[in-house]
Write a structure and sequence with these properties.
The protein is mainly alpha-helical and 73 residues long. It is built from five helices and no strands. 68% of the residues lie in helices and 0% in strands. The relative contact order is 0.19.
């Protein structure tokens, strides 16, 4: 998903992400802003899991939600 599409769909994407990782806060979403690395870090922090586990969960989520991909920087 390109950056413009990600920004346009961010509210919808946030809802889907919140379903999976309910401990993420609105402030977390402000920081994440569509960036995969930020998402991984916030999942790790809020859910108390390793980077590898966060990566596995995000890959699994992306495979179930192919229309929603995060930007990698």
């Amino acid at each position: 998903m390109n950056k413009d599409t990600m920004e346009g769909n961010w509210k919808q994407i946030k809802g889907k992400v919140r379903e999976q990782w309910g401990k993420l806060t609105d402030d977390d979403f402000d920081v994440i802003a569509g960036k995969r690395d930020q998402l991984l870090g916030r999942i790790q922090e809020r859910h108390g899991i390793s980077r590898d586990e966060a990566e596995r969960q995000v890959k699994d989520w992306e495979s179930r939600n192919p229309d929603y991909r995060f930007e990698t920087y």
